[in-house]
Design a protein that fits this description.
The chain is of the alpha/beta class. The longest helix is centred in the last third of the chain and has 36 residues. The protein binds pyridoxal-5'-phosphate.
């Protein structure tokens, strides 16, 4: 097939797809059924027609993440400007490692990082795009480790005092992975209890830090979760800063999900007050703000730490201008061009557009909370902290029942909900991050859940 024919066929395939129409959520099949349909062993050398059969099947059997019934993850269908950026990035296929190979992308990344530094309030900071908040959390911990032990990079941790990192017990699992990868050890990632609101208990944190110091260890890193994965709780930055001033640890903010509140002056004041005093901060544009996956940045308050932490070995074959080459300070060599989609989204919506979006989500989530509270069949399992609702259908043996209800909603292709545990109670975790959602669609979604739950009860 000629290139121009291929382009036309791609456009046609996308146009014919049900994506973004809201017509259907998913065609549900089990893995075994899908395996039979896909016939992945079929030979297809030089066979474009067969490639388009698989492409069509991919589209047919993937959930439409734009659909209002897709309430499963922290992201939904992506913003159109970022989709434009992704398509162009795929066609142009270059790496953002050097200015030479990605000149425009490099300037766009620098521009966007500058915008974010300004919004966060890091006046002399630096940053980089990473592959997601998991990776950004690890890099932040790595910078903190190398600041606490100046020879760690060259000598490792073999002869050092034990290092301890601290997170709330509701922090994301990527921090455990970071402790593993960086040689800290997961036993030295101390999980601090949370209070009733899901925020890290500051007194318990201070006690844990003192225990570490009394036993000859170094309390080097605290991660404030700014929007916990399940409950949406924000650790209190102001109180953590007071503790940091006393105990001199690195204070990182994991805003993968809730960091998006920074776009709105009102919500920033409510949830992220004193954010400019953190040592580092990460957030995902591909979650609440809707950019195409992956789109993340990590910011540090101080300059020149990324280069002395991340740059290693003889890279002279590739980097000759370490200021212009954004890959020089990255842990990767090849870097996907993520800045184009980020820049296009930013230019299209602007800060005000994103502020309106998060404020709109905040209102919608309060609306859904009131709906749940007013409904006899449903109950909130914990109070709402911010953007997350954790609720369940009231039933005897509630964990088993809510698991069944979730499966039924999926198998009947009505909704794809997320489940999580809070203190051994299985809950629906509802996150509002879909620009196609409004009060009417949200009510329909919750009513579908209630109707299906009642039918399940009646059939039991
Ligand atoms: C609080 C928090 N931190 C980090 C992450 C990981 O983000 P990513 O998927 O970008 O690696 C998540 C993902 O859900 C999260 O909720």
């Amino acid at each position: 097939m000629q290139d121009h024919e291929l382009l036309e066929k791609i456009a046609q395939t996308l146009q014919n797809a049900d994506l973004k129409t809201g017509k259907r959520l998913i065609k549900h099949k089990s893995a075994a059924q899908l395996g039979e349909i896909l016939e992945l062993e079929k030979p297809s050398e030089q066979d474009w027609d067969q490639l388009f059969v698989w492409t069509q099947q991919y589209l047919d059997y993937s959930p439409d993440t734009n659909h209002s019934g897709f309430a499963n993850r922290m992201w939904t269908g992506a913003n159109m400007p970022s989709i434009l950026g992704e398509i162009i990035a795929a066609f142009s296929n270059t790496s953002s490692c050097t200015f030479e190979s990605a000149p425009v992308a490099t300037l766009m990344e620098n521009y966007m990082l500058g915008q974010m530094l300004d919004i966060v309030g890091f006046k002399n900071g630096e940053g980089q795009m990473t592959t997601g908040s998991s990776n950004a959390n690890m890099i932040a911990m790595m910078v903190a480790r190398n600041q606490a032990l100046k020879n760690a990079k060259q000598q490792g941790l073999f002869s050092s005092q034990p290092l301890r990192a601290f997170v709330s017990c509701d922090a994301h699992y990527s921090l455990d992975k970071a402790a593993n990868i960086l040689g800290i050890g997961t036993d030295n990632l101390i999980k601090v209890p949370t209070d009733n609101n899901g925020e890290m208990d500051i007194l318990a944190l201070e006690k844990a830090i003192q225990n570490t110091q009394n036993s000859g260890g170094i309390a080097f890193f605290v991660c404030a979760t700014l929007g916990t994965t399940v409950r949406g709780a924000y650790d209190n930055i102001e109180k953590l800063i007071q503790l940091k001033n006393k105990h001199n640890f690195w204070l990182h903010g994991d805003g993968a999900w809730g960091g998006a509140a920074i776009m709105s002056a009102t919500l920033k004041g409510k949830f992220l007050s004193a954010i400019e005093q953190l040592d580092s901060f990460t957030m995902d544009f591909h979650k609440m703000l809707g950019s195409n996956l992956m789109c993340n940045f990590l910011l540090l308050k101080q300059q020149n730490l990324l280069s002395c932490t991340c740059a290693d070995g003889d890279n002279s074959y590739i980097f000759r201008d370490k200021i212009a080459d954004s890959g020089a300070n990255s842990l990767q060599c090849g870097r996907r061009v993520d800045s184009l989609k980020w820049f296009l989204d930013w230019k299209f919506y602007g800060r005000q557009g994103f502020a309106d979006r998060v404020e709109g989500y905040y209102k919608l989530v309060k609306f859904a909370e009131n709906f749940i509270i007013a409904n006899d069949e449903l109950e909130m399992v914990v109070e709402r902290s911010s953007f997350n609702l954790c609720f369940r259908f009231k039933a005897p043996n509630a964990n088993v029942f809510n698991q069944k209800l979730r499966c039924k909603l999926l198998q009947s292709e009505q909704a794809l909900f997320a489940l999580a545990y809070i203190q051994k109670k299985l809950v629906f975790r509802l996150l509002v991050c879909n620009i196609n959602l409004d009060k009417v669609k949200l009510t329909e979604l919750l009513n579908r859940l209630i109707k299906t739950g009642k039918a399940l009860q009646n059939n039991a």
